[in-house]
Amino acid sequence: GGMQGADIAVAWVDTSGKVHIQDRFAFDKIKPIIDNTTQDWFALRGQEQNGWTGIQFKRYFDTCDPMDVPIKSGTNILIFAYGLVDLDLCQSNADITYHDNRRGTRILPLRSYADQPAESTLLELETIDFRFNNHVVPSADTTYYCKVFKSPSTFSTKRHAIATTVYPEEAGYAVTSDMGSKYFMIKMHYDNPRQASNLRDSSGIRFYLANELRKYDLGYILFGTVSNPASLAIPPKAEQFIVDSYCPPEATRVCTLFYL
């Protein structure tokens, strides 16, 4: 995360307790300018107590404003910084001051991947977990870690996974050892820019399995090409191999004509 091209909200609480917020944009590693076209950041509430300021605010996921960065599903890279004095809007030349070394970055999911199903629906399903067991994360900037899990006995008969994403009610993704799903592998990408030590991870994936098969087996098709050579792993002794690729919405907005 860096300042160049960043969509920035500047917020503070004045001495009367009123919350202020400004919509800004950084063209480069310079003071971000105020976006005078539209105000897309809105303060909901805030307070200042014992030298700490907390502010809750909101914004649309995609404002269609070229000076706003769309908030997408998955992880988003955020930057933050804070100063020592509030803006005084009573002064005509009031502006933010340099944050010095009071800054940082975070990688956070700001929106869910899909609408979550009702809790009552999940309670009726069987679950299978594939998780790491207190894995020690290396104190390196970037690490890839893979772990292979054997197919559980639950997969000895055909089952439908229906809640990894919310599938249509009439279809489920078939999971069974008879279809070649004898082992599952999780590959985790650890991003540790501070190279912190003594970090442990027990995260993983949970599958929700239907107790009764649905009418149809779900299939999928992906468009595009794999641009990362490291993501192309051909299994040993494979007589044929199919590469699945993902075509992002930025590409389909430009070209929506496909040939099969």
Taken in chain order, the helices and strands follow as: EEEEEEEHEEEEEEEEEH
Q: How many separate helices?
A: 2
How many whole angstroms does the radius of gyration measure? 24 Å
Task: Please indicate the percent range of residues in DSSP E strands (runs of 2 or more).
Answer: 35-45%
Task: Walk across the major sheet and give the strand order.
Answer: 8-15-11-12-16
**Major sheet attributes:** 5 strands, mixed
Overall body shape? elongated
Helical fraction equals under 10%
Averaged pLDDT, please?
Answer: 77
Number of strands: 16
Structure class:
mainly beta
- Count of all domains: 2
Low-confidence segments, given as residue ranges, are: none
Structural summary, described in words:
This protein has helices spanning 119-123, 249-254, and strands at 6-13, 19-26, 33-34, 42-49, 52-58, 75-81, 103-109, 126-131, 135-137, 142-150, 159-161, 171-175, 183-191, 199-201, 204-210, 216-217. It is mainly beta. The protein folds into two domains: 6-109, no CATH class; 119-219, no CATH class. Strands 8-15-11-12-16 form a five-stranded mixed β-sheet, with no helix packed on it. It is elongated. The model has no long low-confidence stretch (mean pLDDT 77).
Describe this structure in a few short sentences.
With 260 residues, this protein is mainly beta. It has helices spanning 119-123, 249-254, and strands at 6-13, 19-26, 33-34, 42-49, 52-58, 75-81, 103-109, 126-131, 135-137, 142-150, 159-161, 171-175, 183-191, 199-201, 204-210, 216-217.
